[in-house]
Design goal:
By secondary structure, this protein is of the alpha/beta class. It folds into three domains: 252 residues, Aldehyde Dehydrogenase, Chain A, domain 1 (3-Layer(aba) Sandwich); 198 residues, Aldehyde Dehydrogenase, Chain A, domain 2; 31 residues. Helix content is 41%, strand content 18%. Strands 12-13-14-11-10-15-16 form a seven-stranded mixed beta sheet, with helices on both faces. It is globular and about 90 Å long. The protein binds nicotinamide-adenine-dinucleotide (NAD). GO terms for molecular function: succinate-semialdehyde dehydrogenase (NADP+) activity. Its EC number is 1.2.1.79. It catalyses: succinate semialdehyde + NADP(+) + H2O = succinate + NADPH + 2 H(+). It comes from Luteipulveratus mongoliensis.
Length: 535
């Protein structure tokens, strides 16, 4: 396993907060910068660590010409890649699986430095990338193989469904999961035979570039994966405007613009957007387990996780007891900037994110909500740290009732029945993720099916559904269009094609057969197919 980038290692215990001298070795930064398609004398942009506000590296900024160049190179490489057997493509991804583990310490450092999250939360990204690599590398042949379909006239018509790559997939990845969000959408796209042009967010570019280096090392052919850097509205948009298929992750507001542009060009788009996710604790739940899980599910990545829980719906019979367990755990959380295992929450990503969280909490406080825990920034830990915060008495007049906060803030609601809980969970324009806690699993499954969210976890907050790579994941309603994972997560990167071969006689009157007689025989034939349950 590789060394960490900084002096602190995984064996060191979390220390008292101090302005840590985190640096990215200049050799690494220079090497990674070379992977970006940008002019020889490109402008540069500083990457800064939210943990300390300190400078990490300068990376080149691409231009529109760079994006054009990236697409030309990607298109050339794509044709060769698509002609390779799926098994050969899969071997590259299986090697990436191993390389991610081999370079784990370095990747964890980069994720933490760029996102501000804890080491444990960064490790979830390692698990995610490895899991998606393994799943699609092992299953791609199954998902993509030609499939025999029932022909128009059984036996006489032999029909096969084929899957062809779209061509070049354009990916815009956000900053909140620097490794996961940069890599996992690429894996099925590449396995399906596409090339990719990706624009990682500038706040997570170092991690993304290091992971692309690992893909190169795993044997990805030159040219197939092109990387550009630059702001979303210019360079991100240019990437998506040239794509044969659009893969976007970000806010619902930006997702709408991206969808409109893709619609204008009549290309497909997968949009993974925001959420206002609810966890329901039913009257029969194991309250200590639910409280442990709620802490992880609300405050993972300081709440900057699209599937994190922002609403806790409590059955009134257990609400006080649950809150006693939950608040005790929230107050005991260990917050800090250490590049070491052991902390339970890190920093927000930026001043903009800190401002938004502060606004949501202050608005709620001013309008009468009670702050049960947290509710203030912690500048002594780092520039964007904010305490894990629990609010009760949140009403429709308050911004955080319906708007996604995307920070370490959860609102608590009480209900008297399961039906009321389902109605409240569904009382949102979003539909990304949800959770139900109950000891009665069949009741949990029943409640889950009534909640309008793309993933629902029973007795878990988000990890069970997220880690189930064979099953689709994505948003209903304003949370998105399209799915990651499973068959849908790779089929979206393909064009399906039906090839039907007709044998012996046409599906039309043959010479000398009157049309009326032919029509009668067709009706008899179709009736026989219905009776024989041939579908
Ligand atoms: P955002 O929409 O402001 O930006 C997302 C990304 O899109 C950024 O990298 C940005 O530079 C880029 N961008 C901006 N305008 C663009 C344009 N016109 N064309 C192309 N790219 C453009 O969102 P954000 O606040 O940076 O990210 C947080 C949001 O992302 C939250 O709403 C969160 O829920 C969502 N998110 C969703 C998922 C998911 O899987 N559903 C995962 C992570 C984050």
């Amino acid at each position: 396993m590789t060394e960490s980038l900084v002096a602190q290692t995984e064996s060191s215990a979390p220390s008292e907060p101090s302005p840590a001298p985190y640096v990215v070795p200049s050799g690494l930064a220079v090497r990674l910068a070379r992977r970006v398609v940008a002019p020889a004398r490109a402008e540069t942009q500083a990457s800064v660590s939210p943990l300390t506000g300190g400078h990490l590296a300068d990376l080149p900024v691409s231009t529109i010409d760079s994006v054009d160049h990236a697409y030309r190179s990607a298109r050339e490489a794509q044709a060769r890649w698509a002609s390779q057997p799926i098994a050969a493509r899969a071997r590259v991804l299986l090697r990436l699986h191993d390389l991610v583990f081999r370079n784990q310490n370095e990747l964890l450092d980069l994720i933490q430095l760029e996102s501000g999250k804890t080491r444990g939360q960064a490790f979830e990204e390692i698990l995610d990338v490895a899991g998606v690599c393994r799943h699609y590398a092992r299953k791609a042949e199954h998902y993509l193989k030609p499939r025999k379909r029932l022909g128009a006239i059984p036996v006489l018509t032999q029909t096969v469904e084929l899957r062809h790559p779209k061509g070049v997939v354009g990916v815009v990845a956000p900053w909140n999961y620097p490794l996961s969000m940069s890599v996992t959408d690429l894996i099925p796209a590449l396995l399906a035979g596409n090339a990719v042009v990706v624009r990682p967010d500038e706040k997570s570019a170092l991690t993304a570039l290091r992971s692309f280096e690992l893909l190169d090392q795993a044997g990805l052919p030159e040219g197939l994966l092109q990387v550009v850097l630059g702001d979303g509205p210019t360079i991100g948009k240019a990437v998506l405007d040239r794509a044969d298929y659009v893969m976007f992750t970000g806010s619902t507001a930006t997702g709408r613009t991206v969808a409109r542009d893709a619609g204008e060009r009549l290309v497909g788009a997968s949009l993974e957007l925001g959420g206002k996710n609810a966890m329901y604790i039913a009257a029969d739940a194991n309250l200590k387990a639910a409280a442990d899980c709620a802490v992880r599910s609300v405050f993972s990545s300081a709440g900057q996780l699209c599937i994190s829980i922002e609403r806790l719906i409590l059955h009134e019979a257990i609400a006080d007891e649950f809150l006693t367990h939950f608040i005790k755990r929230v107050r005991a959380m260990k917050i800090g900037p250490d590049l070491a295992w052991g902390n339970t929450m890190g920093s927000l990503i930026s001043q903009a994110q800190l401002d938004k969280v502060t606004e949501h909490v202050e608005d709620a406080r001013a309008k009468g909500a009670t702050v049960l825990a947290g509710g203030r920034a912690r500048p002594e830990l780092g520039p964007y740290f904010y305490e894990p915060t629990v609010l009760e008495g949140v009403t429709a007049a308050m911004t955080c009732r319906d708007e996604e906060t995307f920070g370490p803030v959860v609102s608590v609601y009480r209900v008297s029945t399961d039906d009321e809980a389902v109605a409240l969970a569904n009382d949102t324009s979003y539909g990304l993720n949800a959770s139900v806690f109950t000891k009665d699993i069949s009741r949990g499954r029943g409640l889950a099916a009534r909640i309008k969210a793309g993933t629902v976890n029973v007795n878990e907050g988000y990890v069970s559904a997220w880690g189930s790579n064979g099953s689709p994941m994505g948003g209903m309603r304003q949370s998105g269009v399209g799915r990651r994972h499973g068959a849908e997560g790779i089929w979206k990167y393909t064009e399906s094609q039906t090839v039907a071969v007709q044998h012996l006689m046409p599906i039309a009157p043959t010479k000398g057969v009157p049309e009326k007689l032919w029509a009668k025989s067709m009706v008899l034939g179709l009736k026989a197919m219905k009776a024989g349950r041939i579908s």
